[in-house]
């Protein structure tokens, strides 16, 4: 998946995205688009990683923030907000 993330980053750079602002994790997460229901994804990523990746993909596709409530150490919940980073989803 690393090579695909690198090529996705190269493409984004070639069409004008500031890839340094997006960061490496953005591209590593986006590589999983379309693969989140596969056994490889489910068996190789922790639940927290799966949630982060799915939230990133959904934020980019929908063009809006995704909010996920997670348990915190005080027995309550903390909202994790994933805002879209790119200008728009691919056509």
Key phrases:
91 residues; alpha+beta; 5 helices; 51% helix
Explain the layout of strands and helices.
Elements: H1 2-14, H2 19-22, H3 24-30, H4 39-44, H5 47-62, E1 66-71, E2 77-82
Antiparallel strand pairs: 1-2
Following the backbone from N to C, one meets helices and strands in this order, namely HHHHHEE
The main sheet comes to: 2 strands, antiparallel
Which bin fits the share of residues in helices? 40-55%
Overall pLDDT score: 92
Number of helices: 5
Structural class: alpha+beta
Number of strands: 2
Q: How would the global form be characterised?
A: globular
Beta-strand percentage range: 5-15%
How many domains? The number is 1
Distance between the termini: 23 Å
Strand line-up across the major sheet: 1-2
Instruction: Provide the low-confidence segments as ranges.
Output: none
Alpha-carbon Rg, integer: 14 Å
């Amino acid at each position: 998946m690393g090579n695909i993330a690198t090529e996705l980053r190269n493409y984004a750079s070639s069409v004008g995205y500031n890839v340094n602002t997006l960061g490496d994790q953005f591209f590593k997460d986006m590589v999983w688009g379309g693969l989140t229901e596969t056994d490889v994804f489910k068996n190789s990523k922790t639940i927290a990683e799966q949630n982060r990746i799915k939230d990133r993909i959904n934020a980019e596709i929908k063009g809006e923030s995704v909010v996920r409530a997670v348990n915190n150490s005080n027995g309550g919940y903390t909202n994790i907000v994933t805002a879209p980073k790119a200008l728009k989803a691919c056509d």
